[in-house]
Amino acid sequence: MATALADVLAGYAVAGLGNPAALGWLLVSTACLYAGGVVLNDVFDRDLDRTERPERPIPSGRVTVPAASTLGGGLLAFGVLAASEASTAAGIVAAATAASVLLYDAWGKRQGLLGPVNMGMCRGLNLLLGIAAAPPVLAEAWPLALLPLVYITAVTAVSRGEVHGGRRGIAAFALISLSGVLVALLALALRHAGGSSAGVGFTALLAWRVLPAFWGVYETPEPGPIRHATRTGVLSLVLLDAVIGATYGGALYSLAIVATGLVAWSLARLFAVT
C-alpha cells in the first residue's frame, strides 16, 4: 500500500501542491482502492487457494465469500466516493481505477500480455489520481501515466515466471521497456530546473536497482532471479515516483515520497512482495 500512496504523492506534485484537503481525500481513496483490490483478489482466487494456500482466510473458513465480497466492493466504492470529494475528475479516475482493479482480479491476471498491461493501467491511473487534485493540469499531464504503466507492465510480465521460470525474450522485453522509462525520466528531470539534480539522482538510483536485477533474469530466467527482480521492481517504483516528485515539487518534497518507500521496504521484510 505504501507504493500506492507514493503514486498519489507524485501526482499531487504535478498538480502543483496547492490543495492539501484534496490530497487527504486522495490518499484515503488510493488506500481503499488498493485494499479492496487485495480483498477481491482473494475472492477470485478462492478455488486455487483451496489447493495451494488452504491457510488463507477464505479457504480456511475464517471469512465467508459473501463477507469478503462485500468488504472488497465496499472498499472500492468508498475509494471512489473519497476521490469525488477532491474533485469530479478525481472521482472519474478513481472509478476507472476500481474498474481496472476488478478486471485484473477477475480476468487480467490469467492473461498473457494483456494481464501485465492491465496491472500497468492500474498504476498509471493511480498516478493520475494524484494529478486530478488539479483537473486543468490533468488534461495536460496525463501522458505521465505512461511511465508507471510501462514500468509495471514490464515488471509484471517477468513476474509470471516466479514459480516455473520464465523466458529470455520476456526478460529482454522488460529490459528494453525499463530502459525506455529511465531515459524518459532523465529527460523529464533535465527539463525542469527546480528539481533536476534530485530527479537525475533518483533516476540513477532507480537504474542501479532495477537494471542489474532484470539483467540477472535475462542471463538466468529461473524462479530465484525472477522473484528477486520482481521484488526489486515493485519496491523501486517509489523511486520512479520520487523522480516525478522532485521534478515538479522539489527535492525536499521528494523525500516524503522516499519515506513511503522506506515503509514499503520495511514491510517487505515481513510480507511477500509480488
Give a concise summary.
This protein is mainly α. The protein has helices at residues 2-15, 20-44, 46-52, 65-86, 88-106, 114-131, 135-141, 146-159, 168-191, 196-219, 223-249, 251-268.
Structure description:
- The chain is mainly alpha-helical and 274 residues long.
- The protein has one domain: UbiA prenyltransferase (Tetracycline Repressor, domain 2), CATH 1.10.357.140.
- The protein has 12 helices and no strands.
- The protein has helices spanning 2-15, 20-44, 46-52, 65-86, 88-106, 114-131, 135-141, 146-159, 168-191, 196-219, 223-249, 251-268.
- α1 (2-15) crosses α6, α8 runs antiparallel to α11 and α10 (196-219) runs antiparallel to α11.
Summary keywords:
single chain; 274 residues; Tetracycline Repressor, domain 2; 80% helix; 0% strand
